[in-house]
């Protein structure tokens, strides 16, 4: 059950800095309701794990820079016994063939029909020559995973032994630049102007959906969503090829996005940042840390789920910042100072949990996240847990991989 704090509905244990951000969101624009899922923590302008429901408005800062970040998970036709003796070589091949961080590790060009989508015209309207460079960046990065908390994982379902594959990333540099463009335009700046200094606690940037700029943002965001879906589809197909498997069931969701939805017979814009849509019967993937379970869930038709505007968590939720966990990085000398978690501690914990790890820094270690089961318990009236998955292989960008587009 949730509690209400200054008109904000809060699931789980309230974190003061995230609640403060949510209260700020509630004071700006045509707000219908603000919610915090149980995995909430502080974000940029709108907290991660935060949901803001608007009447006729959309928030580029609420959706954030990693537009359409989300997950795809597939159940394969393999069982654990089919791969248990070769999981190490499988993860070596995943790290070799899938591109993490900024660049590509291969020269494979990924073609897709979305590059002919009519909504690319939005960028010609607002950016003239920048349209070509943005599409070139999008083509270059399609199918790359990025860094931060973005991953490719292989799981075993605890009850059946079925092998699952999942990934987590969004629209990469294309989405990041799209967010920057519209935040600039909303402030009266030009497409290519340098972004102004920003505060994590600044009020949300709002656009009327029926305005020219609001309509263009919605179309651009939708295009970034198609791009993210295409990227996750491509990466999953590559991993299926590596393990020699076929998909028998798929779950695919964004969790940084704005949707037009009907609630109580009226259309609203629901902006979810780090929150999974969870309509009755809708399937979703919720990831834990690399040393914890992940789950496949389905939304309930319940009063509490309606009160949540059919939203739920997207992960376990951080309890330690990246800098607190890993220390401060000096990119000139490529050395770190400080940090509460050592690489040895992280690897010992992962080995004990039975995971083959490739890449990752201590800022993504199990120690920096809540336990997923505790988070899910706060939402037990809103969702059903359909499949419990244990990671056996985790691949992420390297500890010192710089990526300006990470979540």
Record keyword descriptors for this entry:
407 residues, 12 helices, 30% helix, globular, 6-stranded mixed beta sheet, 20 strands, 8-stranded mixed beta sheet, alpha+beta, tRNA-splicing ligase RtcB
Structure description:
The chain is α+β, with helices and mostly antiparallel strands and 407 residues long. The protein has a single domain (3-398), classed as Alpha-Beta Complex (tRNA-splicing ligase RtcB), CATH 3.90.1860.10. The protein has twelve helices and 20 strands. It has helices at 16-26, 60-63, 80-83, 87-97, 121-127, 130-141, 172-186, 212-243, 303-307, 322-326, 343-353, 372-377, and strands spanning 3-5, 8-10, 31-41, 48-54, 57-58, 70-79, 151-157, 162-169, 207-208, 247-254, 256-263, 266-273, 275-277, 283-286, 294-299, 311-313, 328-330, 335-337, 356-360, 383-398. The strands form five sheets. Strands 6, 7, 8, 10, 14, 15, 19 and 20 form an eight-stranded mixed sheet that branches. Helix 4 (87-97) packs across helix 8. The longest helix has 32 residues, at 212-243. It is globular and about 60 Å long. It starts with a strand and ends in a 9-residue tail after the last strand. The model has no long low-confidence stretch (mean pLDDT 92).
- N-end to C-end Cα span: 29 Å
* Global shape: globular
Name the CATH class: Alpha Beta
The CATH superfamily appears as: tRNA-splicing ligase RtcB
The mean pLDDT is 92
Give the proportion of residues in helices: 25-40%
Stated plainly, the CATH topology is called tRNA-splicing ligase RtcB
Strand content: 25-35%
What is the CA-based Rg, rounded?
A: 20 Å
CATH architecture: Alpha-Beta Complex
- Based on secondary structure, the structural category is alpha+beta
Integer count of domains:
1
Q: Report the uncertain regions.
A: none
Taking the sheet with the most strands, its summary is: 8 strands, mixed
Number of E strands:
20
Helical region count? 12
């Amino acid at each position: 059950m949730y509690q209400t704090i200054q008109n904000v509905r809060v699931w789980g244990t309230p974190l003061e800095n995230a609640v403060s951000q949510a209260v700020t969101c509630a004071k700006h624009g045509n707000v219908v309701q603000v919610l915090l899922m149980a995995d909430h923590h502080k974000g940029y302008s709108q907290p991660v794990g935060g949901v803001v429901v608007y009447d006729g408005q959309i928030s580029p800062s609420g959706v954030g820079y990693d537009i359409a970040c989300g997950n795809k998970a597939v159940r394969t036709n393999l069982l654990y016994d089919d791969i248990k003796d070769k999981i190490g070589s499988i993860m070596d091949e995943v790290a070799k063939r899938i591109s993490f961080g900024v660049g590509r590790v291969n020269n494979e060009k990924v073609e897709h029909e979305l590059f002919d989508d009519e909504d690319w015209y939005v960028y010609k309207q607002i950016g003239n020559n920048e349209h070509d460079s943005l599409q070139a960046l999008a083509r270059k990065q399609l199918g790359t995973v990025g860094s931060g908390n973005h991953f490719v994982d292989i799981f075993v379902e605890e009850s059946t032994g079925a092998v699952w594959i999942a990934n987590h990333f969004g629209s990469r540099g294309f989405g990041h630049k799209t967010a920057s463009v519209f935040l600039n335009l909303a402030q009266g700046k030009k497409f290519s102007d340098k972004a102004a200094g920003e505060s994590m606690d600044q009020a949300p940037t709002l656009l009327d959906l029926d305005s020219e700029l609001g309509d263009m943002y919605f179309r651009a965001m939708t295009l970034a969503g198609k791009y993210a879906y295409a990227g996750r589809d491509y990466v999953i197909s590559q991993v299926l090829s590596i393990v020699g498997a076929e998909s028998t069931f798929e779950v695919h969701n964004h969790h940084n996005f704005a949707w037009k939805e009907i609630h109580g017979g009226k259309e609203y814009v629901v902006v979810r940042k780090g929150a999974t849509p969870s309509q009755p019967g809708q399937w979703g993937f919720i990831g834990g840390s690399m040393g914890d379970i992940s789950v496949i869930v389905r939304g309930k038709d319940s009063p509490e789920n309606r009160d949540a505007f059919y939203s739920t968590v997207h992960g376990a939720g951080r309890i330690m910042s990246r800098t607190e966990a890993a220390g401060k990085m000096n990119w000139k000398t490529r050395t770190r100072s400080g940090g509460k978690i050592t690489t040895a501690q992280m690897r010992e914990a992962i080995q004990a949990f039975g995971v083959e790890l490739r890449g990752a820094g201590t800022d993504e270690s199990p120690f920096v996240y809540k336990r997923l089961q505790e988070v899910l318990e706060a939402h037990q009236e809103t969702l059903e847990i359909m499949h419990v998955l244990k990671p056996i292989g985790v691949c992420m960008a390297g500890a010192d991989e710089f990526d300006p587009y990470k979540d």
